Amino acid sequence: MSARPPSPLTHTLRGWLFATMLALLGGAALLPAQAARGDATPANATEQGPQVGDLPPDWLGLDRDGRSIQVSHYRGKVVLVVFWAGWCEQCRRELPQLSALQTGFGRERLQIVAINYAEPQRDYEAFLRQNPGLDLLTLRDPGTVARYYRVRAVPNAFLIDTRGRIAHVQRGYTPQKVERLVRELHALLPPPAAQAGRD
After folding, report:
1. pLDDT confidence of 167, banded at 50, 70, 90?
2. 15, 31, 35, 70: most buried by Cβ count inside 10 Å?
3. Whole-structure pTM value
């Protein structure tokens, strides 16, 4: 059987991976408190926050219409929860790439939740006005959700499988970490509905 040529989505995924690896070469942007103390490994598991295999904190915040968003709303899909900030250069470069992933894979299989961490409401709104093409569910967190997830640096990602458990945690970015995140996400995605119906 001859191999099928790569699909447009495969090209998009490869392009996203390459662009993101280049854009995020500088690593994660530390929050002020973390920058002051260094990026030391926390002393105990409680400070590390949710780990692979754990059920994540369910509540993710309120959307722009005031609706409560929860991880459990998306059971059966892969969920990627990403914490970001407008002042973070790596985040600004990453969000359009995540938007391309969301568009490419579709919301029937993947839900990306981009949580703005601890920025003033006016800065959050200004960022969204300047980036109207982002195909992402964006929330603003004054700090509550980040505390549940023990987020101390951005960008910061939690990949959640279709059963609602954490499959991958990514704190900070290097090209190798980005590549692994994309591989993990792709492996977790359920098959497209049309294909699943033919199997």
Report:
1. very high
2. 31
3. 0.75
Among 97, 80, 81, CA closest to 23: 97
Give the model's pLDDT for residue 31.
45
The amino acid sitting at 185 is L
| Mean pLDDT along residues 164-190 | 86
Please confirm whether the linkage preceding 6 is cis (ω < 30° from 0). no
pLDDT tens for each residue of 29-43: 544 333 332 332 333
Q: Quick one: three-class SS letters along the chain?
A: CCCCCCCHHHHHHHHHHHHHHHHCCCCCEECHHHHHHCCCCCCCHHHHCCCCCCCCCCEEEECCCCCEEEHHHHCCCEEEEEEECCCCHHHHHHHHHHHHHHHHHCCCCEEEEEEEECCCHHHHHHHHHHCCCCCCEEEEECCHHHHHHCCCEECEEEEECCCCCEEEEEECCCHHHHHHHHHHHHHHCCCCHHHHHHC
Angle (deg, nearest 10), helices 8-23 and 89-105: 170
